[in-house]
Amino acid sequence: MTSSDNAPSGRQPEPAGQNGAGHGYVDLGYARLDTDRLSRTGDPEVVYGAGKTPDQVVDLLRHLHTAHPDRAALATRLDSTALAMVREAFPQARIDEVAGAATLGPLPAPAGLVCVLAAGTSDARVAREAVCTVEAFGAGVRTITDVGVAGVHRLLAAKEEFDDADCLIVVAGMEGALPSVVGGLTGVPLVAVPTSVGYGASFGGLAALLGMLNSCAPGVVVSNIDNGFGAGVFAARVARRAARPRADQPTPDQSYDQTQDQAPGQTRDSANGAAR
């Protein structure tokens, strides 16, 4: 597949750094690709494939890869035709058929750990989208599948697997009860993802969304319906921050307020803490 085949209307892709690069983007005619996002946020722009032609997906991935060859470019919500064209154009790309996602370029070294829990196998597409996103955004990931509340003993048996994570992504459809149960079992930061899985009264995931928003478990935040990508970005950033050493992190002695037990009028010697 030639470059001109990949570019919409036969356009040759222009190298990153032209057509708006001074403003942090590349003007492709049909899109203004944000090539500056990596430097602003720590994460590059992602190609949302829904509504784009396969040619456009390939063209955008190529330009993102050119802009930051040392960091994976991610494309989500790709149909089978787009996945096939990405595979043909970039044999080295990682393709996830279940998620409908592709990454081009090296994944960052993982920092921290995200655990993705899926209520059922019907939630796999959204859960896998979250997994691909977490990997592309630089965190380690562990998956636990088919642990919905209809058989809560399966979830209880997996508690040790998710209790040591830095952030959880909990994916569920139907009534969306799983995040509340998980939130009652652990204090790990948790983002819930409602899916559009369910019978008629689930209203395409609305029932799960409302159930999660009304969770009685504290510390549960909620993404939009089927938004495994958004949850993956959030969780990866939490995990990366949790794993990052801080230069100003107080030691146990420093974090203890020594003034709390000194007599009125006393001060402490800054060198040895002695009261005087």
From TrEMBL:
Residues 112-244 form the PurE domain. GO terms for molecular function: hydrolase activity. Residues 1-25, 241-276 are annotated as: Disordered. Residues 251-270 have a biased composition (Polar residues). It comes from the Bacteria. One of its GO terms (biological process) is 'de novo' IMP biosynthetic process. Transmembrane segments: none annotated. PANTHER family: PHOSPHORIBOSYLAMINOIMIDAZOLE CARBOXYLASE-RELATED, SLL1489 PROTEIN. This is NCAIR mutase (PurE)-related protein. It comes from Actinopolymorpha pittospori.
